[in-house]
Design goal:
Layout (H helix, E strand, L loop, with lengths): L1 H172 L12 H7 L5 H4 L11 H5 L2 H16 L5 E6 L4 E13 L2 E12 L2 E11 L5 E3 L1
Antiparallel strand pairs: 1-2, 2-3, 3-4, 4-5
Helix pairs in contact: 1-2, 2-5
């Protein structure tokens, strides 16, 4: 017992000695620890201040979020019907997809059928090309003869005015032209119109008012060109304007369709004739309607 007691005391003494040594070591380190704490204390104060600022900013953010949340929720509520509508439309489109696929299948079948018929179509095209080439060759052969025919026609046109002048004199002597004889336009009707049938221009002799300056300065060929051009304009539904020019008289003009209407169940147009002559300009407007024979007449 005495021996055990002595060992315990020895161990206790060693432990007390080690603890005293540790305390002594800690005492030596206390100045540096205190210095480190002193250096850290200002930073801790700064950190505390910054933490306080962060808390304030967080509180402001929370307040702002609380204010905006109702507006955001309201926008979400407004968007929800649109989303539902989009979903419904998507479902409707998805229901149409089978029909679309079927239609595409039909188109593909038609394309396949067309591909089968393509060789025969190409053979027909080749036949048309061959026929066209043959026709072109024949036209090339006829071209020299056409030039001769055109020359002969030009000679014939030079002789026509003489015959028409005789016709004019006969009509004047028969006193069948009434008041038109004094307008100076009958000569234009008989001498100027070469390319139009008589029945087509019979109703167009009044396109130039006999009391206008145009009636005084326009030539018979000018009036002829105006008659031909106005028929071209009236015969084309897409045209709105046509122009004419006579290099021999240096006169020219423009003919315009201003409006279309019905009169006595007949189609009518208001036609504006803008004539240029002798450094002058004059605009004449006439109403032209189709008669029972489907010919145009100046009303």
């Amino acid at each position: 017992m005495i021996s055990k007691f002595s060992v315990s005391q020895a161990l206790l003494a060693l432990a007390i000695a080690y603890f005293a040594y540790a305390l002594l070591s800690l005492t030596k380190e206390l100045p540096s620890i205190i210095s480190a704490i002193d250096r850290t204390t200002p930073h801790i104060t700064t950190i505390i201040d910054e933490v306080e600022l962060v808390r304030v900013e967080v509180a402001q953010v929370r307040t702002l979020v609380d204010k905006q949340v109702p507006a955001i929720l309201s926008q979400i509520n407004n968007i929800l019907p649109l989303v539902e509508q989009g979903l419904m439309q998507g479902e409707a489109y998805s229901k149409q997809l089978p029909k679309l696929w079927q239609h595409l299948d039909n188109v593909e079948m038609q394309i396949q059928a067309l591909q089968k018929d393509l060789p025969s179509i190409l053979r027909r095209v080749d036949a048309v090309v061959i026929t066209s080439n043959t026709a072109i060759d024949e036209l090339a052969k006829w071209r020299p003869h056409s030039a001769k025919y055109i020359t002969a026609i030009e000679y014939t046109r030079e002789d026509i005015p003489q015959y028409l002048t005789r016709v004019e004199n006969i009509v004047i002597d028969a006193k069948t032209i009434g008041s038109e004889a004094s307008s100076g336009l009958i000569s234009g009707f008989f001498k100027g119109v070469m390319s139009l049938p008589f029945e087509m221009v019979a109703g167009l002799t009044g396109i130039v008012d006999s009391k206008s300056r145009s009636a005084k300065y326009l030539t018979a060929d000018d009036v002829s060109m105006m008659q031909e051009k106005v028929l071209v304009l009236l015969g084309n539904h897409t045209k709105k304007h046509v122009s004419w020019q006579n290099d021999e008289s240096n006169n020219h003009g423009k003919i315009s369709k201003e409006k279309q209407f019905k009169r006595n169940k007949q189609t009518c147009h208001l036609i504006a004739f803008t004539n240029y002559f002798k450094d002058q300009q004059e605009i004449l407007k006439e109403v032209m309607c189709k008669d029972k024979d489907d010919l145009w007449q100046v009303m």
